[in-house]
Amino acid sequence: MSALTPPIRSVSVVTPVFNEAESLPEFLRRLFAALDPLEQEVEVIAVDDGSVDGSGALLEAATQEYPALTVVRFRRNYGQTAALMAGIDAARGDVVVTLDSDLQNDPADIARLLETLDQGYDVVSGWRKDRKDAAIRRNMVSRVANRLISRVVGVPLHDYGCTLKAYRRDVLLGNRLYGEMHRFIPVYAAQMGARVTELPVRHHPRRFGASKYGLERVVKVVLDLMVVSFLSRYFARPMYVFGSFGLASLLASFVCLALMLWLKFVSGVAMVLTPLPVLAAMLFLVGAMSLLMGLMSEVLVRTYFESQGRKSYAVARVTRGAGGLDAADEPVLDAV
Q1: Four-residue CA torsion sign, 165, 167, 171, 173
Q2: Measured at the alpha carbon of residue 225, what is the angle toward residues 201 and 12, in degrees to the nearest 5?
Q3: Between the CA of residue 170 and those of 13, 38, 202, 242, 317, what are the distances in Å?
Q4: Quick one: pLDDT band at residue 306, thresholds 50, 70, 90?
């Protein structure tokens, strides 16, 4: 165990549930059987994401049999990311483990995730190395998507879509999830200096019902990837994006202007016979607006950090010598 990683004393297991009434009894039995041998204090938070098949009532009844079970019920279906966010918000453990409730993730792998986490890591991501899903529609698309995500965000993982992951609680603080962003939590954590690793986990064929996701999810993931890529690289410096685009547009505008003048005075071509005047004016306006948007974004980013009391850095540990200031005179350091 690394000197920077405290021992794991408690574990919160978060599982989103949407119309899984058939699988829940077996899932809960296997989950608590896997958690019982653990030395840590455990809790399970099941988030009913607006199920209409009685899953919510079944979970609430199961709290009588499993005292460590907490049930959070949504008024309607909000999606997997919202369900995981609600579970993380409710979690109280030192470590948060997420997994699906459809019996495809194996609860027995939780102990292995915790063992790997205890080796000095902050995030352990499950890798469904032998995935039991449709070869083309799910597996091939997933492999392409994971390679694209790894290349764009710079955090090389084989399986961003695997829900089975373990996080130290501190790397989750301050992160809010939207859209399909739950798969990108390791990226957010890595941006703050978290140590991220991957562990092959078991994956079982779906026994009940059908998958809730189709190819349309790819579009959402691509759009979310664009957001994550922007936030990871330019969140604290948006002027780099808007300013670069604005300067390029202004440069192109001046090139069009120079070409227009050259055609007029050298080749004798009238300006109105070419689209260059309109193009030069449009590029100039776009460039000026981009620069102004960059300045406005810089103001908004500073307002955000000040209003939220957040820092643009994360402190892992502070060690002081005996000759420092008295505790009463020390400034307070906030870690993100």
Answers
A1: positive
A2: 40
A3: 15, 21, 27, 32, 13
A4: confident
Q: Is 208 left (phi over 0), alpha (psi -120 to 50) or beta?
A: beta
Query: Dihedral of CA 78/79/81/83: which sign?
Result: positive
Tokens of 170: 């501190």
Alpha helices in the chain (DSSP H): 24-35, 55-62, 80-90, 110-117, 141-153, 185-191, 216-234, 239-262, 276-308
44 contacts 66 by C-beta, under 8 angstroms: yes
Q: What angle do CA 64, 49, 183 make, to 5 degrees?
A: 115
Q: Six-digit token pair at 81?
A: 């990311």
Comparing CA positions, the residue from 106, 104, 74, 103 lying closest to residue 87 is 74
Residue 2 reports pLDDT greater than 60: no
* Residue matched to tokens 């809960």: 28
DSSP code at position 42: E
Spatial CB neighbours of 217, under 8 Å, sequence gap ≥ 6? 180
Rounded to whole angstroms, the maximal C-alpha distance in the chain is 90
As to burial, measured by CB atoms within 10 angstroms (0-12 exposed, 13-18 middle, 19+ buried), residue 150 is middle
Rounded distance between C-alpha atoms, residue 118 and residue 8, angstroms: 7
- How is 168-211 classified by DSSP, letter by letter? EGGGTTT----TTGGGGHHHHHHHTT--EEEEE--B----SS--
Q: Is 6 exposed, middle or buried (0-12, 13-18, 19+ CB in 10 A)?
A: exposed
Interacting residues of 166 by C-beta distance below 8 A, sequence separation 6+: 95, 96, 97, 110, 113, 114, 116, 117, 123, 124
The tokens for 220 are 């959402």
Which has the minimum average pLDDT: 34-48, 145-159, 238-252?
145-159
Closest CA to 175 of 126, 217, 100, 235: 235
Residue 312: which pLDDT band, with cuts at 50, 70 and 90?
Answer: low
pLDDT the model gives residue 316: 61
40-49, 230-239, 291-300: least confidently modelled range: 230-239
Nearest Cα to Cα of residue 294 among 246, 227, 222: 246
